[in-house]
Amino acid sequence: MTSLAAGSRLGPYEILSALGAGGMGEVYRARDARLKRDVAVKILPSAFAESAERLRRFEQEAQAASALNHPNILAIYDLGTHKGAPYIVSELLEGETLRSRLSGGAFTPRRAIGHALQIAQGLAAAHEKGIVHRDLKPENIFVTNDGRVKILDFGLARVTQPEGTNASATNLPTVAPGTDAGTVLGTLGYMSPEQVRGRPADARSDIFSFGAILYEMLSGRRAFHGDTAADTISAILTKEPPDLSETNRKIPESLDRIVRHCLEKSPEARFHSASDIAFDLEAVSGASLTAAAQSTPARGRRAWLPLMAIAALLAAVGIGMLLGSRVRSSPQPPRQLRSTLLLPERVAFSCSALSPDGSRLAISGISAEGRRGLWVRPLESPEAKFLAGSENAVLPFWSPNGRSIGFFANSKLMRIEASGGPPIPLADVTGVGAAWGPNGVILYSDPSGPIYRLQDSGGKAVAVTELDASRHETSHRYPQFLPDGRHFLYEALNLKGSPRDEANRVRVASLDSKEDRAVMRAYSRTVYAQGHLLYSRSGDVFGPLMAQPFDPKRLETRGEPLTVAERVGIFGEYYLYANLTASETGVLVYDSEQLLSQFVWLDRAGRQIGEFGDPAVVGGPRISPDGQRVAYALYEASGSSQIWIGDLVRGVQTRLTKTVALQDNPVWSPDGSRIAFQTNRTHQGDIYVIAASGSGQEEPLYQSPGQSYPEDWSPDGRFIGYNANEATGQRIPSISILPLPGEHKPTVLVGGGPTTDIFGDSRFSPDGKWVAYDSEESGRPEVYVTSFPGREATLQVSSAGGVLPNWRRDGKELFYVTPDGRLMSVAVERGPKLAFGTPKLLFRIPNASMIGAASPYDVAPDGERFLVRVPVVHGSSWPLNLVLNWTSGLKKEK
User: Fold this and answer.
1) In the beta sheet, which residues pair with residue 453?
2) CB within 8 A of 675, min separation 6: which ones?
3) pLDDT interval class at 697 (50, 70, 90)
4) E strands within 821-894?
5) For residue 550, is pLDDT > 50?
């Protein structure tokens, strides 16, 4: 079989690069021209086609494997032949095999159980359809960069075996070729006793292999191995692996029993199904990981309670409910119980939502590796599962039956099954709050528009509220249904004013009438639960958590607000979003911490070579043209943010702006003397300018209802490029150009139509003749370059998704970020016509949450260093506050 060169084609697939080769064939990265996606193509040896019967079996097995639709099994897209050799087309994965991960030694019980549970679930799905792997081993298990486990080569091991049933065990496909005495065997040690005897293998054989893999994850060594093939076979047939306690005393007996049960010599004595394994792993996970949680170090200035306290609280609630049902004469209300809920390790928290029954928490966060999305965690278990397909998700909300979760990601409203599965897009919107009511109705809000109604199956959205100019309303946000399923609360805001504007009101409206009236003043996002409205009274980044009694039938408040907690976290990205969630079952979860970021210097290999400033809540950075200074936004406890300038040589930092408002997106003038920035002091986002020295006044350059975010200043100083989202009640985003001389009348460069979805940054080329930008006009975010000032030519730069372009100062290189956070470099050839090279990976940015926000990186003038904003994610788990029966013991405000 001849290796394929880049650019060659297999039908509709264009080969991009080789990914690897082995006894099972060669694997290539390819581009599917029809569906415009990258795929993996595995070409099997041409010997398969020499036997018609073997080729028929291969096609049958591949077709069966392609029918498997499970998040833990590699998806098969297509199969065909190339010069007599059959090939398989599958999804393209980013990450590494389990074998590579095992090179670092034994896993923690938490990590091993997490991987094992996904493998067991994938096996169960395949076995249910009658498909057996027969060659399960660490090389055939892939762990993606976001922690998903994928089983590879399902159904193919059977057809790779030699014809006949009496083949020597040492020649089976799992034996590494050319193995001599004195060499530890490769993958023979994962075969079941019946396989090495040459007998038929069924699902129980996969269970044996699974046990050997779980043993290795927990111990760091193989369950069965020897110096020769005979020694390894003898160990599989007659010996038991050493006790796990010899290598890791923290492994509980219950987990050891699962491994031993999988590794029984007789198939009849093993687990009956992979589903049984998954069930036992889920049952043992809480007990297995409690000890690890108890040893978690304290974070910040508090020592958090161990996870066992959560189980104790839930048990106490259950006992209380039992006693309440038996002792009718006792009028005592249930006691309020407080504890701490720990999130997955090294995951920084953004926001969360409790399921309607209060049993599960959907968590939006960012992992230390830069993956942003949703995790789902049952309250009674310490294990949280990442939902594949929820990348970049924020503001989650549950369906009434708790089976599905809605969220916003990549400028879309989406839904996904809580148990996992592909996400379903419902609407194009960068939302600020949504609620799922009965009869399949979803209410959602647009940043600068009313509340919309949409069926959970998709379709046309219809406005159910109307902005009232007489009340100075510019945005309706955070809808939520009341218990009757007809009335809903929302927040009517005046975004031209400050977060504490007197015009901001919580209002109540109806789906089936024009009823709409004010309820109370809005201080922060308000949550209804158990006859109360929960909110932060101060409107600061940290303020007291209050509960205002509210009658959902009379639709009016009662009495005075009561204090629930002294401190709840708020962030301003979604206009004073109070980090709290509550259910009608009496469960309350809120955050009193804050995500900090740090500016660090990385070289072209992604190695940290320095840092600037201290951890804080910051936005930016933007490096000055001479490379000596950096401008950034610093968010304050009051809810405001200011533009600061840092001296990169001396380390001195100076506050530039003074107005109490949100200021962000600083942009340097080409001579470094001025800075343009965005502020909400008049509208949601106006463009102002100030001298970089701090002298003089902050002056407006462009003011307009809606959002205007400056992104770059042209090299000749004549133009500012900005991202515009006008407040017209309909999203009409664009990349626009603001001329500085004269009347400052802007023109649209890209976008401006209701179906165009532009997000991210745009940048002028160093010679001012081109503008790089990102757009979803092809159906996914890609980086483009268009000529300036006229758009005579437009070129696509990225090849597999891209956002946030940035030029090297000499114009010889263009950088951008892939949607999953990889920083790419593209060589630029200048001349009569602009030309771009093949994108090359530099490194993965530690924070992949930048989509839809200001760029988290900037490039030094020499192109050799990058100043990157990264989240400060501690090794311990992020703590949330958990309160059961939270309405008991409420206190009046002091």
Assistant:
1) 443, 462
2) 631, 643, 645, 656, 666, 667, 668, 669, 689, 690, 691, 692
3) confident
4) 822-829, 835-836, 840-844, 857-859, 865-871, 877-884, 891-892
5) yes
Work out the angle at residue 642's Cα, subtended by the Cα atoms of residues 721 and 540, and round it to the nearest 5 degrees.
125
> What is the spatial order of strands in the sheet that 653-655 belongs to?
618-623, 629-635, 641-647, 653-655
Q: Return the DSSP state at 137.
A: S
Query: Which SS3 state, helix, strand or coil, does residue 825 take?
Result: strand
Q: Are 244 and 256 in contact (CB under 8 A)?
A: yes
* Inter-residue contact 784 to 795 (CB < 8 Å): yes
Rg, Å, the chain Cα set: 29
Residue 67: exposure state from Cβ atoms within 10 A (0-12, 13-18, ≥19): exposed
Task: State the Cα–Cα distance between residues 665 and 851, nearest whole angstrom.
Answer: 14
Per the model's pLDDT, the better-predicted residue between 893 and 285 turns out to be 285
Tokens describing residue 405: 């979760």
- Give me 123's structure tokens: 């096996």
Tell me how far apart the alpha carbons of residues 849 and 637 are, in angstroms, rounded to a whole number: 22
Residue 519 to residue 82: CA distance in whole angstroms? 69
Q: How many residues belong to the chain?
A: 894
Q: Which residues contact 249 (CB under 8 A, 6 or more apart)?
A: none
* pLDDT at residue 719 greater than cutoff 70: yes
What per-residue confidence (pLDDT) applies to 30?
Answer: 92
Q: How far apart are CA 758 and CA 735, in angstroms?
A: 7
Strands (E), 145-290: 149-151
The answer on pLDDT for 218 being more than 50 is yes
Average confidence (pLDDT) over 307-329: 37
Amino acid at 638: S
Residue owning tokens 């193989």: 222
More confident residue, 501 or 330: 501
User: What's the order of all strands across the beta sheet hosting 424-428?
Assistant: 394-398, 404-409, 412-417, 424-428
Q: Is 7 left (phi over 0), alpha (psi -120 to 50) or beta?
A: left
Q: Which of 160, 157, 121 is nearest to 140 (CA)?
A: 157
**Over residues 673-684, mean pLDDT:** 86
In this prediction, residue 97 carries a pLDDT of 92
The secondary structure of residue 47, as a DSSP letter, is G
Q: Which of 315-319, 350-354, 359-363, 703-707 is predicted most confidently?
A: 359-363
pLDDT (0 to 100) of residue 522: 83
Q: Which residue has the tokens 């073997």?
A: 54
Distance, CA of 490 to CA of 506 (rounded, Å): 6
Burial group, residue 513, by CB count within 10 angstroms (0-12, 13-18, 19+): exposed
Which residues have a Cβ under 8 Å from the Cβ of 53 and sit 6 or more positions away? none
Cα 74 to Cα 48, 55, 794, 826: the distances in Å are: 22, 21, 37, 31
Buried b (16+ CB within 10 A) or exposed e, 704-736: bbbbbbbbbbbbeeebbbbbbbbbeeebbbbbb
The helix/strand/coil state of 252 is coil
Q: Residue 112 has what pLDDT?
A: 92
**Residue 393 CB-density burial (10 A; 0-12 exposed, 13-18 middle, 19+ buried):** buried
Residues 614, 48: Cα–Cα separation, whole Å: 61
Where do we find the tokens 């060669």?
26
Query: For the chain, which domains are there?
Result: 1-92 (3.30.200.20), 95-295 (1.10.510.10), 308-595+877-892 (2.120.10.30), 597-871 (2.120.10.30)
pTM over 0.70, yes/no: no
Give 172 or 213, the one with higher predicted confidence: 213
| Sequence-ordered list of residues with C-beta below 8 angstroms from that of 329, at least 6 positions apart, any chain | none
Report how far apart the first and last C-alpha atoms of the chain are (Å, whole number). Answer: 80
